[in-house]
Write a structure and sequence with these properties.
single chain, 365 residues, Aspartate Aminotransferase, domain 2, 2 domains, three-stranded antiparallel beta sheet, 14% strand, binds pyridoxal-5'-phosphate
């Protein structure tokens, strides 16, 4: 622990930030680990996307385009959205940070849910605002609890739908009810990092289009398999996008990132393949684990939240998986000590997980 300097002090809130801990990727004594801790796409990006990234290497001395027009155009065509109301960021993390920087400061409250994504709290504190945690109802976003927690100081309300690390989702009617019930100064942020895994789901874009107090964030880190590239985007009312663009650095996305992301977005057949594979492997894995006595809520994302009888059992299973060369995510930090979040790999990876959990449950019995 570094001691704070007596005179040179950061802004209030900054030292309250606990560093974000990403999914681990290495295990001692295992050359080939199966990493299922960060919800990455087991198939990686599409071949055309990798080719576009490679092809961009001849232009590394050039500054990138700063208005992201080509990528915003591709996103707008794919989703049927006005590109003028899209903003691109270095991951959706950057869009979340812009939202907090622009709309929340000292004395303001930023609501997130009990098991919600860690970056909401971090970005709220970084902006000097006060994060407010609201309980969930059996690992589902609880609209009534959020509305009850709203005050005259609430500026932002973050929900992920589907949620991480629970994998659960709430319906369009509930999200609409939330947007309608917020106090007038509050903005609802719908984090759609996993929206592409839900067939036919628009991530809340329709609601954004119909209202002035709803923003949607999206990412290319999950179904597009581009977590390493850092590309995300937001879609919102014109007044919000105009605001966020004022704090966005002009060159926040690199040239290779822009080039590869556009191709990824346009490669709809590959996205459809990844969506279908995920559903198949996820539902099989969930059924296999349930049959072993490890249930999970129906997941709408590319992971399942496996529930054990106790925190001790979840910890022991995690240790067993590690010995088998498999890294999953412990989620005690998300107030889910008796659960493990397991990313859906390809068919072989899921079979390996099911086998290892079966072996664990056998020795435990
Ligand atoms: C993975 C994830 C993101 C994506 O973050 P990026 O910065 O785009 O990589 C955003 N929100 C949630 C809930 C996530 O799980």
């Amino acid at each position: 622990m570094t001691e704070p300097h007596p005179d040179i002090r950061p802004q209030p809130g900054i030292l309250d930030i606990a560093l974000y801990v990403g999914g681990e990727s290495k295990l001692q004594g295992h050359a080939e680990v199966l990493k299922l801790s960060s919800n990455e796409n087991p198939f990686g990006p599409s071949p055309a996307t990798v080719e576009a990234f490679r092809a961009s290497s001849g232009e590394l001395h050039r500054y990138p385009n700063s208005d992201h027009g080509a990528l915003r155009g591709a996103l707008g065509r794919l989703h049927g959205l006005d590109p003028e109301r899209i903003i691109c960021g270095a991951g959706s993390d950057e869009i979340i940070a812009f939202l907090c920087q622009c709309y929340a400061g000292p004395g303001d409250e930023v609501i997130h849910t009990e098991h919600g994504f860690g970056m909401y709290r971090i970005s709220a504190l970084a902006a000097g605002a006060t994060p407010v945690e609201v309980p969930e109802r059996a690992r589902h976003t609880d609209v009534d609890a959020i509305l009850a927690a709203c005050t005259a100081r609430t500026r932002l309300v973050f929900i992920a739908n589907p949620n991480n690390p629970t994998g659960t989702m709430i319906g369009e009617d509930e999200v609409t009810r939330l947007s309608e019930g917020l106090p007038p100064q509050a903005l609802l942020v719908l984090d759609g990092a996993y929206a592409e895994f839900v067939p036919g789901f628009d991530g809340g874009a329709g609601l954004v289009g119909a209202r002035e107090n709803v923003v949607m964030t999206r990412t290319l880190s999950k179904i597009y398999g581009l977590g390493g590239l850092r590309v995300g985007w937001g879609y919102g009312p014109a007044h919000v996008i105009d605001t966020l663009n004022r704090v966005r650095g002009p060159f926040n996305l690199s040239g290779p990132a822009l080039a590869a992301a556009q191709v990824a977005v346009e490669d709809v057949d590959y996205t459809a393949f990844c969506q279908a594979e995920n559903i198949l492997n996820r539902d099989r894995l969930a059924a296999d684990l349930a049959a072993l006595g490890v249930p999970s809520d129906p997941s709408f994302a590319n992971f399942i939240l496996a529930q054990f009888a106790s925190a001790a059992e979840a910890e022991a299973c995690d240790a067993h998986l590690r010995r088998a060369g498999i890294i999953v995510r412990r989620v005690a930090g998300y107030k889910l000590p008796a659960a493990l979040r397991i990313t859906v790999g390809d068919g072989a990876a899921c079979a390996r997980v099911a086998e290892a959990v079966a072996a664990f449950m056998k020795v435990r019995a």
